[in-house]
Design brief:
With 267 residues, the protein is an alpha+beta fold. The protein has eleven helices and nine strands.
Length: 267
């Protein structure tokens, strides 16, 4: 997926906001804080010296418009997607925000959808070499391979998670800027033997119906689903008879994404 420079320029005013109807209004300081979270860690708002960071070799004060335009033109694709999703989630009317953005992004053959607190991108494609695959051996390798191919997001509800190799694969994708969210079962196994998820957007829960949170599924880019008996544990890989079903189907993935959002509401 490639967003053109023309589309980037068109969303500058959306980032600044202030229309009072749709887009959140941001001060200069808030704009700097926003872009600090999107890769521009050295940006500083200095009210004593003109406020917004100077651009290039210029000694002139920077306007909001020029600052946002510069950062959007220099942002990574992953962080640009994050920015656009944040514009939607912070807007006063999310469906209207999606329509406004689609009027721009349609020129780049990109279509956004917003349903049940889930934002999907049409035009973000993953490999279509397979549609369905059932795995009974080397499950760990298949899971890590699927994670490595992720482009935008990974949502996983996993009863037990003790496999360090799978955690390392997720960590690599987290550092690349993908949206990664995790739900695991709150019990002694995970608290004693589970991997360290403190750097991830994760929660531990009991079952929502009085029993266990016994799910084992992962949704990648809202297009690929991994599910089956296989927990992300060392025993599941080295001792147990397990299975993993890998399916590429947007409709199925959306259903799993909605169930994930029920387990872990968007904050």
């Amino acid at each position: 997926m490639k967003i053109s420079n023309a589309s980037k320029e068109a969303i500058v005013n959306f980032v600044i906001g202030g229309d009072g109807k749709l887009w959140r209004s941001r001060t200069g300081s808030q704009l700097v804080t926003l872009f600090q979270t999107l890769g521009f860690r050295d940006d500083v708002y200095d009210s004593a010296n003109g406020g917004l960071p100077k651009l290039g070799n210029s000694d002139l004060n920077t306007s909001k418009s020029n600052y946002v335009k510069n950062r959007i033109h220099n942002i990574t694709d992953i962080n640009l997607k994050k920015l656009i999703e944040q514009l939607i989630t912070e807007s006063f009317d999310k469906q209207a925000a999606v329509r406004s953005l689609n009027e721009i992004l349609n020129m780049d053959s990109i279509q956004l959808e917003y349903n049940d607190n889930i934002i999907t991108w049409e035009g973000v494609k993953i490999s279509q070499e397979i549609e369905n695959e059932v795995v009974f051996k080397e499950n760990e390798r298949k899971v890590i391979d699927a994670i490595n191919k992720a482009k935008v997001s990974i949502l996983a509800a996993m009863a037990w998670f003790t496999n360090e190799k799978i955690k390392e694969a997720l960590e690599k994708k987290r550092q690349e800027g993908l949206r990664i969210e995790l739900v695991i079962y709150k019990d002694g196994v995970n608290s004693t033997y589970g991997v360290d998820l403190s750097d991830f957007d994760s929660i531990e829960i009991r079952g929502t119906r009085g029993g266990l949170m016994h799910n084992k599924f992962c949704v990648i880019d809202n297009q690929k689903v991994l599910t089956g008996s296989y927990n992300w544990t060392t025993n599941a890989e080295s001792k147990n008879d397990e299975n993993v079903l890998i399916t590429i189907d947007n409709d199925t993935a959306t259903k799993y994404s909605i169930e994930f959002r029920r387990l872990k509401p968007l904050i």
